[in-house]
Amino acid sequence: NTEKNGKQQSLTFNEIPQTLDFAHHFPVGYRADILLRWGDPLHHGENNFEPEKLTPKSQQRRFGYNNDFIAFMPLAPEVLSAQGHIHLRSKNSHRGLLCVNHEYTQPHLMFSGYNNEYSATQGVTADHVAIEQAACGHSIVEIEKGKDGWQPVTDSPYNRRITATTAMEIAGPAAGDARLKTHQDPSGTEVLGTIGNCAGGKTPWGTVLIAEEGFGGAFQGNPELIEDAREAVNHRLFGIKAENRNWGDYDRRFDIQVEPNEPNRFGWMVEFDPYDPQSKPRKLTSLGRFEHEGFTLVCKPEQPVVAYGGDDDEGQFVYRFVSQHHYQPDNPSANWQLLTEGTLYAARFADDGNGQWLPLIYGQGPLTAANGFRNQADVMIDTRRAAAMLGATPMDRPEDVETNPHNDCTYVMLTKNKKRGSDNLDAANPRARNIAGHILEIVPPGVKGNRDHSSASFQWQQFLLGGNPNAENPAERGAYGQQSHYDISSHGWFANPDNVAFDPKGNMWVATDGCERFGFHDGLWAMATEGPLRAAPKHFFGCPRGAEVCGPEFSPDGKTLFIAIQHPADARNSTYDQPLHRWPDNDPKLPPRPSVLAIYREDGKEVGS
Ligand code: FEO
Ligand code: CA
Ligand code: CA
Ligand code: CA
Question: Which ligand is nearest to the Cα of residue 313, counting in written order?
């Protein structure tokens, strides 16, 4: 441990500087290996990646685009069955399934011939649309740690792609509802594909949860022409408009004039079993429909499962789900029903530091026919409208919401909200035109290690305010640490928290999305959540220009940190033909490629300390 102003620092790595260039950066004494890149083959029979020869069929057998959330799901060496919970209990940190989201595609950086990011979304060819659909969704890849570090296991029977066309079940209270029925699916119970897969979570029974966030951009059509006025409002709320990209020209269900209910089948959380490659994913309508960042769980034996999530849009809400049934560690088949039956709540943050969970239950309070809710399916399909009517607190873009197992408190990443007006401030969202974001701490009732996450109320406080602690404008000034910002170096501050992870010691690792506007790369910052250096960050990793870091995920032993570098070289006028840079290959024949890195210490000890 090192001393910092007389305070014990358990994060002993050598902090890196804030920079802005075409490389990635990490502390001395560490390795950062490129583990998986867009286009890497997941099965034998595929050649090395040659982007100009890519076909939709081949993309379905390769790692997808714009990697985001990462879940490391251990594989127990001695167990071959598909029972996830058995594998998870092994805590094997040398072999596992890396489950990786692919949030969205960028045709102007994937294909030759598109001029710039603004025109590229128009007029993409049928083949390119099909490749994009195959490059979205999720990858499940077996990986193994050998003498030379982590390697993907090509052709593992577990390797699988889930794409924008994979068949999935619709489960929970909205399944089969009239508003989910389409020509292709008159039952309203089966949907093709998942898109906008941002962050997610994992369960102790061995499944993975992935979010559907910005799905609206994949749909084209004019909401004003929809006969049902309520659906028109609903579609507008998710950014569906005539000038959106043109998937609908070739896959007609993405045109709301052809299939007005299809958008109602997106905007959910998806659960799947990565240990069974034949299993059918399902959309959990019990967790509501909005621009899901992700949902993360708190599971205690013989208690209800609690899941926390955010709706990543300006003025949207923080949510919590409490299962009706109890978590039974030894009964995985019973646990499969935990997330389909229960109650969803939206958060109200009172200015005095108290908070309340407001239940979204049809028939209660304003959630009645008089306000256009026919049943619980309506409450779930129109979650945003329901939560607003209940009086939930509009937040500054809630991204990851995750609980630190060490202190049993829950942390809310609020990335930014330029639309926050000075006439609309509250203690939970205290800054007008919030450009730097902040992090809230939710403290459920009870003592450390035994807090009641299913309680109707909680307490909360600000954990940190993003931004430069020395900013001239006091409204933009960051606030870190218990007394002052002097506990951090000049590189220790950041802005725009997005994803978060906790290492096995309980340190918080924050991934950012937006720091380039402050003059330096996005990256990772690590800090304690307890003790004298609480909320005093140190800078650990920096991205190549244009990119953000997503999905920080530790191996169970804390010795590997997996991160996803999303949208490298995403900048004005940067295209496939003339990219800003060609990270990570720096090969003139290859474009920039979103990639997953495995970071570890050269001496093999735990990352961070
Ligand atoms: Fe896809 Fe909320 O970041
Ligand atoms: Ca993103
Ligand atoms: Ca995100
Ligand atoms: Ca983001």
Answer: 1
Separation between Cα atoms, residue 257 and residue 384, nearest integer Å: 23
Do residues 73 and 88 make contact, with C-beta atoms less than 8 angstroms apart? yes
Q: Per the structure block, which two tokens stand in for 247?
A: 């998937």
Distance 293 CA to ligand 3 centre (A): 6
Instruction: Name the closest-CA residue to atom 1, ligand 1.
Output: 198
Contact yes or no for 550/67 (Cβ under 8 A):
yes
- Residues shown for the chain: 609
Q: In angstroms, what is the span from residue 334 Cα to ligand 3's centroid?
A: 31
CA of 503 to the centre of ligand 2 (A): 22
What's the CA gap between 248 and 254, in Å, rounded?
4
Q: What are phi and psi of 130, to 5 degrees?
A: -65, -35
565-598 burial code (b ≥16 CB/10 A, e <16): bbbbbbbeebbbeebbbbbbeeeeebbbbbbbbb
Half-sphere exposure of 377 (CA within 13 A, CB side): 15
Within 6 A (CB) of ligand 1 lie: 103, 198, 213, 293, 312, 399, 498
User: What is the pTM for the complete model shown?
Assistant: 0.97
Q: Would you place residue 45 in the very low, low, confident or very high pLDDT band (cuts 50, 70, 90)?
A: confident
Interface predicted TM-score of the whole assembly (ipTM), two decimals: 0.94
DSSP notation for 94-108? SEEEEEEEE----HH
**Helix and strand totals (H; E) in the chain:** 9, 34
Which atom of ligand 1 is found nearest the CA of 312? Answer: 2
542 Cα to the center of ligand 2, angstroms = 16
Read off the DSSP letter of residue 378. H
The closest-lying atom of ligand 1 relative to the alpha carbon of residue 397 is 2
Give the pLDDT mean for 280-294. 98
pLDDT in tens, 348-370: 999 999 999 999 999 999 999 99
What type of residue is 383?
T
In DSSP notation, 432-488 reads TTBSS-EEEEEE-SEETTEE-TTSSEEEEEEEEE-S-TT-SSGGG--B-SSS-GGGS
